Structure prediction request, 645 residues.
Amino acid sequence: MALLELQGVTRSVRLPDSSVLDILRGVDLEVDVGDHVSVVGRSGSGKTTLLNLLGLLDAPSSGTIHFDGRLVSRLRSGQRDRARGADIGFIFQQFNLLPGRTALENVQTPLLYATGRQFWQRRRLAAEMLDRVGLSGRMQSMPEKLSGGEQQRVAIARALVRGPRLILADEPTGALDIETGTTVMALLDDVAEASGAALITITHDTNVAALARRHYRLDTGVLTPLDITRALAAALDVPR
Amino acid sequence: MRRLAASVVGAMVEAAAELRIHRTRVLLSLIGVAVAVAALTTVVGLGTVAQQSSLESYERSGGRAATIGAYFYSQSGEPMDAASLASSVDTVVDKYRISHHTSNGYANQRVQLPEGVADIPFQLVDVDYAVIHRLTVLHGDWFTDRDAGRFAPAIIINEGFWNRIGSPDPRTHPTVELTGADAATAVVIGVVESFPGDTTSSGMMLTDAFAAIVDPAVLAQQPPSYEFWVPEETSDQLTTLLSRDLEAMAGEGVQVDVNRQDFGASGEDPFAPIRMVVTGVAVLILFLGALSLVNISLVTVRQRIREIGIRRSFGATAPRIFFAVMMESVVGTVVAGVIGVGVAIAIVQSPIVQGYIAPGVIDIPPFPVDAALIGLAASVAVGALAGLLPALVAVRVRVIDAIRY
Ligand SMILES: Nc1ncnc2c1ncn2[C@@H]1O[C@H](COP(=O)(O)OP(=O)(O)O)[C@@H](O)[C@H]1O
Ligand SMILES: [Mg+2]
Prediction:
């Protein structure tokens, strides 16, 4: 049974001039535990909209999403929130660290919504996770004092601290320079692999997408499999 | 259960962190709440003290709750037998085990003062009068049972009288000459406070001591009334019983009126107007405090919409967000409330304020617990109220809009 399964998922929004914008059109996707999937698409192609659906933050206009064998539309909002907290970790392009909280406090945040050992030992778990991403020396630093790469590493630690089964990364390198982006991606790939979680990376960068094992392309709301070798070659041909 | 413990502790942790981060802004708004709570608690506290002071003057004239008065009238105009009335009073006191009672009569007495002879009104009472009316002496002592049999009658005089004879210390046994038919040398054993604004002279004497120096016919003309201090619960019943028994013993031609005479008897609360004013002012102050807090909390929450979205994406449920935002408000106002109550206690208990609001209050009351509790309850209520609106805003945050960049 797939961890996540999308069938004929569409998402449309009604614009202020009362016309309807179809952002996603009939998306089918299956993701298993341990998978590493990438979705490449240009800006405005609907990547973030897709990710919100995958992360149970949004509901499709039509089609079905099953998470862990359960039909998501049948879950009550509290169940959805708890499932998201327990099983899904987010990494955002803009890091989205909580301002005014230390790196350690930021990593503890998801554990505040956990129960039992995860809740009561949140400090220790968060410290261990920061150590894993190589930031044991910056635990008491505020996000504003960290470099972009360090901030994203804190975000990675935060996404992984509850041991989710699905990690969703929305343009994780989008705000980083190429070199830092590569290091951060390698780290993300590494810790995701070690934890056995599925990783879905959404990006406009073919090189980042190439790190995944399965590749998709999103174009004007249509999701199709992508031949990564050809895409890489094409990317080389096109001068940036 | 497990989830509940973690949720509650978790929300507290979040609220505490939130307060720490926004401490300047929070501090400013909480100063407002502390001031409001201090004002409320002070007003309620002062109200209680003021009430205590008016209660004292009520008690001084009408007796404490419950005081039953008995008055005797001669229907025929014939003199009444004061001694037999007194003994019928003793009978009912024994029968109903009444702990305190006193006679209460008046007589004008000619007194030799430095500037000449003056007619001075004397109140004729028993030893228990001071207990029933919560009366204490300013200087010297109150009557004791032994004073009834003194050769030179003991008198207690008011400040006006005392000033006219040169304010002697009662410990030096100063005397005054009573002149007229019942001439005697009286010893001043104590001084009582004059009612505020009263400059006249008056005195008090034990009824028995007066009886010893006066012509019995004078007493029979106008026998004293009596007061009985009884438990409030049984006062209605006792009024009926005393009326029946005294009427029966008084015999033909004498009418007996028995009724409750302390301030509680009228059935209406004499302090209602004070309470209403106090409550009105307090509620207004608190309302203003709450309003400014709501305003600040709303601003704060708007600035945190993105943060709330991030928390939601990491598994915070809507009720959890609601509770955490609410907690921030309540935790803050309770701290402010405790400080406010502390300030109020300091104000109300300060001697300057006490002297101003309750001059001459004999029992300076400890800070009223009611007022402190009202202050704390109000701070919780204000916190909950001020937290409600931002908490509602917080749960309505659409996560995907909040984290979209
Ligand atoms: N709630 C919305 N209302 C109107 N337009 C939207 C809304 N959400 C997304 N869009 C539009 O849909 C398109 C896809 O958005 P998005 O999923 O954020 O793309 P991407 O992440 O690939 O850049 C964009 O043109 C965006 O403006
Ligand atoms: Mg996007």
About this structure: Residues 2-59+269-404 of chain B form one domain. The radius of gyration of chain B is 32 Å.
